[in-house]
Amino acid sequence: MQSETIENYLKTIYHLSAGNSTIVNNKQLADKLKVIPATVTEAVKKLHELKLVIYEKSYGTRLTSSGSKMALNIVRRHRIWETYLANELGFGWDEVHEIAEELEHIKNDKLIKKLSEKLGNPSFDPHGDPIPDEKGKIQKSNFIKLSEAKLKNSYKIMGVTDHSTAFLKYLEKHQLIIGASINIKTIEEFDNSITLICQKKEVSISPKAAESIIAETL
Amino acid sequence: MQSETIENYLKTIYHLSAGNSTIVNNKQLADKLKVIPATVTEAVKKLHELKLVIYEKSYGTRLTSSGSKMALNIVRRHRIWETYLANELGFGWDEVHEIAEELEHIKNDKLIKKLSEKLGNPSFDPHGDPIPDEKGKIQKSNFIKLSEAKLKNSYKIMGVTDHSTAFLKYLEKHQLIIGASINIKTIEEFDNSITLICQKKEVSISPKAAESIIAETL
DNA sequence: TTATTATTTTTGGCTAACCAAAAAATTAAT
DNA sequence: ATTAATTTTTTGGTTAGCCAAAAATAATAA
């Protein structure tokens, strides 16, 4: 098996199993990897041979510890590159994912180390997603996208992932300031729009906006 | 044909034909690409179909103008990355080639543009090799490696490609200072060692040293 | 529990890129 | 101009990664 193929499978399994080695099935993988399930069957068999996953016929697949280690490393490379592209080269956050999908496959530990150092060895990318360290250790954060916020909880607005002027104007208009504390009042059932209290005022924001706001759980 | 395969063939043909569309033969290509000649035969036929090269049976292959354009672009990407790795990330000049071999295949014009800008849009890499611009135009330089120097000619020492302390000490000992003007007195037939006049003193240097010194033709 | 639906696996087939060995063509040497 | 050496091409075969369609299995609903 080609190393890039392996990496793409492991990474996808990792994401689908949400880090906690939940079993993933072939259809999920096929959808994400844009291949048909038959192809996945073949692949996971080979990955099982390589002891990177445990594949049980007609049941599902999960990462072994060495598969997980490898997946974590790919995630690290991906997020370091994304952060680098955004912070050092001035790419928009919407552009970096696609480029990082390619860059993540360049396996040169020293390169990732240098990039990481230049960035100050961050533990989180601008999305708020954690960057695994060299050993694969993930620092768990209390950062979330506002779209994942829970009713009644309090948060502090920490940043945004959309830097368009349109969005920044939107925030200004609604008086959503970075650093402000907020409390979730309602989450609409039918469209997931959120009503929150910010600086004593009640503000309602769209799900799209909530998706672009990073907040810290208080 | 896979784009990476195409790129590797075009780049290799470009280098072997020294930029001036000299005909290259299959064995040369096979050697450089680490495949057997039969594989090259197959490949150049396909590249001919794609109108990227002109392949004449049992005779040889040369780039078409669109093939050449593509090759120049790959060379550009390679050298931009090399320069970036060396100048911005602090890699040694001996390390960058290998990494750039992978990075050069990431096709994202904006990425190369940003890297180039950050470097001040250089026309030459630290080797003294020219970096083609976006349109493929190459600025021809009067920089050479001292190992390519010609008898009786005068040069100015512009830099080195080996930054080891051992080499820098060697230069110091022989009083070869950056910026100094030199004149080539003799080039030994049997071992290519060079005797030159520098600051009125006669200095003899090894071919290995000459390989690491960049000089400007005066 | 049987039928229906969905998922998974098997089977047969394809293409790209490679190699080994044989055959053909070219080039060099006597 | 023949022979010898080299290079090139052809032929047959391999592996990785993919797909389509059929068969097997599992899950869901009636």
Q: What's the Cα radius of gyration of chain A?
A: 20 Å
N to C succession of SSEs of chain A? HHHEEHHHEEHEEEHE
Query: What is the averaged pLDDT score of chain A?
Result: 92
Tell me the name of the CATH class of the domain at 144-217 in chain A: Mainly Beta
Q: Can you tell me the overall shape of chain A?
A: globular
Strand residue content of chain A: 15-25%
Strand arrangement within the widest β-sheet of chain A reads: 3-8-4-5-6-7
Low-confidence stretches of chain A: none
Report, as a whole number of angstroms, the end-to-end distance of chain A.
46 Å
Main β-sheet of chain A, in a few words? 6 strands, antiparallel
Which protein chains are joined by the largest interface, and how many residues does each one contribute? Answer: A-B, 15 and 15 residues
- Structural classification of chain A: alpha+beta
What is the number of strand segments of chain A?
Answer: 8
Walk me through what this model shows.
The structure is a homodimer. With about 220 residues, chain A is α+β, with helices and mostly antiparallel strands. Among the domains of chain A are: about 5-65, Winged helix-like DNA-binding domain superfamily/Winged helix DNA-binding domain (Arc Repressor Mutant, subunit A), CATH 1.10.10.10; about 145-215, SH3 type barrels. The first copy, chain A, has 8 helices and 8 strands. Chain A has helices spanning about 5-15, 25-35, 35-50, 65-85, 95-105, 110-120, 165-175, 205-210, and strands at about 55, 60-65, 145, 155-160, 180-185, 195-200, 200-205, 215. The termini of chain A are far apart. The interface of A and B includes residues 85 and 114 of A. The structure holds a DNA duplex (30 and 30 nucleotides).
